[in-house]
Design goal:
- The chain has about 290 residues and is α/β, with parallel strands linked by helices.
- It has a single domain, classed as Alpha/Beta hydrolase fold, catalytic domain (Rossmann fold, 3-Layer(aba) Sandwich).
- Helices cover about 40% and strands about 15% of the residues.
- Strands 1-2-4-3-5-6-7-8 form an 8-stranded mixed sheet, sandwiched between helices.
- The protein starts with 5 loop residues before the first helix and ends with a helix.
- Keywords: Hydrolase.
């Protein structure tokens, strides 16, 4: 496996909506990696542990979404800025179509792109998050803790949230806590996070969704023509695994792989098994 550093892989793309920052490594078919949300998240932190594995087979592009403290911030809701950022990014690099891996929020963004622009997504891999709660309460425990931290950002609150993300508490190291705390409490990044996950913003989003005539993405999954692999931790307390029931019914070319003893960060907690399953899927010739 190739060892790749933060400095050696970081890149910038200037757009009409500010600078998009990303990491690039490897050669081959393009593979776009989209990160999730939450305190102190970055694309690099989500995927640094698996970048070398994928870079042996693909031209890997880890995009940093606006509003999370790495790319230029933007002035909108982080989720609403993310989908056009993907289009702007692909256009800026001259890429017509790519394989996509999306973690949590990144999976939802990828699904929205695949629905609106089906020719741009060759294959899609999600890491938790695509779908809708069927049996478990909504929002999940991890989302509630995320809202609590966003309203009142304390170190103890961050640690509680981090533990909700994983099955094995040993994953939550002091290094992880400190690097997440530093970015999560940076004033501008925290202000933007509150547009999405403060209790006030979350309630407003829920109310707007109920009042809107717009069809939610999870009700349009049948429009995704790309072969899709859903990967899920069996013990996910953020996006419970029963969320997979809806996409498994509706995705025309969907399949599901559930990893035991694993929480929301499947690519971290079940790294070796997850990489093997995803590489097999991405490299498989479709009939």
């Amino acid at each position: 496996m190739t060892e790749l550093s933060y400095e050696a892989t970081k890149r910038e793309l200037v757009t009409d909506q500010g600078v998009l920052r990303y990491h690039e490594a490897g050669d081959g078919p393009p593979l776009l990696l989209l990160h999730g949300s939450g305190p102190g998240v970055t694309g690099w932190r989500n995927y640094r542990g698996v970048l070398g594995d994928f870079a042996e087979h693909f031209r890997c592009l880890i995009l940093e979404f606006p509003g999370f403290g790495v790319s230029d911030p933007g002035d909108g809701h982080p989720m609403m800025m993310a989908v056009p950022a993907v289009t702007r990014f692909l256009d800026g690099l001259g890429l017509d179509s790519v394989n996509v891996i999306g973690n949590s929020m990144g999976g939802i963004v990828a699904a929205n792109v695949a629905i609106a622009q089906p020719d741009r997504v060759r294959k899609l891999v999600s890491v938790g998050g695509i779908g809708r709660n069927v049996l478990a309460p909504s929002p999940g425990e991890g989302i509630k803790l995320l809202t609590e931290f966003t309203d009142n950002p304390t170190r103890e609150g961050l640690i509680r949230w981090l533990h909700s993300m994983v099955y094995d508490p040993a994953v939550v190291t002091e290094q992880l806590i400190e690097e997440r705390w530093e970015l999560a409490t940076e004033p501008q990044t925290l202000e933007i996070a509150r547009r999405m996950y403060s209790s006030k913003a979350f309630a407003a989003t829920q109310a707007a969704g109920k009042a809107s005539n717009v069809t939610p993405y999870w009700a349009q999954l049948h429009k995704i023509t790309a072969p899709t692999l859903l990967t899920w931790g069996r013990d996910d307390r953020v996006s419970p695994v029963d969320m997979a029931m809806l996409p498994m019914r509706d995705l025309p070319n969907g399949e599901l792989h559930v990893f035991p003893n694993c929480g929301h960060w499947t690519m971290i907690e079940a790294k070796d098994a997850w990489v093997a399953a995803v590489l097999a899927f991405l490299r498989r010739e479709e009939k």
